[in-house]
Write a structure and sequence with these properties.
The complex is a heterodimer of chains A (about 90) and B (about 400). Chain A is mostly helical. Chain A has helices spanning about 5-15, 35-50, 70-85. The chains are: A mainly alpha (about 90), B alpha/beta (about 400).
Amino acid sequence: MAGSVKDRVVAIVAEQAVLEPSDIRMDQTLEDLGIDSLALVECIFSIEEEFDVEVPFNANQPEESEFDISNVASIVAAVEELVARQNA
Amino acid sequence: MRRVVITGAGTINPLGQDVPETLAAMREGKCGIGPLDVRDVERLSIQIGGQVHDYDPEAHFNRQQIALYDRFTQFTLLAAKEALAQAGLDFSGQLAGETGVVLGTAGGGVNTWDENYRAVYEEGKNRVHPFVVPKLMNNAAASHIAIEHGLHGPSFTVATACASSNHAMGLAFHLIRGGSATVIVTGGSESMLCFGGIKAWEGLRVMSRDACRPFSANRNGMVQGEGAGIFVFEEREHARARGAEILAEVIGFAMSSDAADIVMPSKQGAARAMSGALADARLAPEEVGYISAHGTGTAANDKTECAAVADVFGAHAADDLMISSTKSMHGHLIGGTGAVELLSCIMAVRDGIVAPTIGYEEPDPECALDVVPNIAREAKVDVALSNAFAFGGFNAVLALRRA
């Protein structure tokens, strides 16, 4: 998939939310988008596959994971960070 | 109504290779969880588990048997041998036709699947051993008990994920109570600590990388274990007539289905199974002294289970009901877990010793019950419950009373 990290993350989130990417706003939370815990785990799996990264996420302690899932913007930022670290 | 008692128990699990060793470890609060020793462990992100160590199949089985017995079957047969030796039943006459085998397992021969997929996919082989199918099938372990001991009665295997062995033992109880059998060899077994078995669980993101700490505020997931627990359930008058030692009486069983989410637990579903078991056993909540919790150490299970216990037991839950999770010591034996955990119920009602929840570090207001933290406790327990709540929303709860 071509495009920026942001576009690619939004596409993954949109697929799980069963929405068009154009309907996703950066300030939306996963809850706003109707993404439950199972869909979140699928999102993370898709991100790992798409970017070939390891996302540090434990569903038991989402708030303590380094990977910030507060909203779409924070997920995009976290993925950008992982991709940058991988390329460094 | 026909009553059902337990006249034999056997096990092999991360805490011990028989019942006395396992109960001693539970009393001492030993931890059987440690670094995993499996092929390709370096490619796993989860590298701990409750493995059965110091185990040599060749010390117990010949080459032909090993060709037919997956590790979960081997564990089953060893535990069954111990249980049947304790029960001391003679199956040479009519009793063989009145005795069946009802076991639980979630995955059956997972190691056999794993090894043979490797052979054909990774190593590119075009041929597998002729006994792959009879080795990996879920009912292999039950069938081999029947074959080895000549048991001709009602026999089958149930697979309800993490509740498999509780469902099996509950159905064994029903078969005897309802008159379809005099004796059932029952319990469960699981052995999925291989690369594929652990990799599949990793995917869910619910596994801990360091320890299983049920009910503790800093818990961070479950840890897989392996092993088997096997019991001899027997009609009470039959057991009394032959003067058998009775370990405990099985007095109630209930099952429920959440019909909600495929992985998230339901407080209502768990509560219905527990209150159903109380009703089946004609118990008031105050009569229960101990609950062997499902207590997986995940955020979701432990708070949901505690809320369900609080709903069913009310003030009694807060005052003098003990609830502990021995998964903290042996890990989650998946389809075999309820069977090994029933040992802690037997220890509670028979020996007056309640197994602890080890690894307990920080109280969690959402799990504000007496979880018997870290140290076993002496207590007179008349009745104990054993909880199992499976993925898929299937719940199964057993009630035991001191004999």
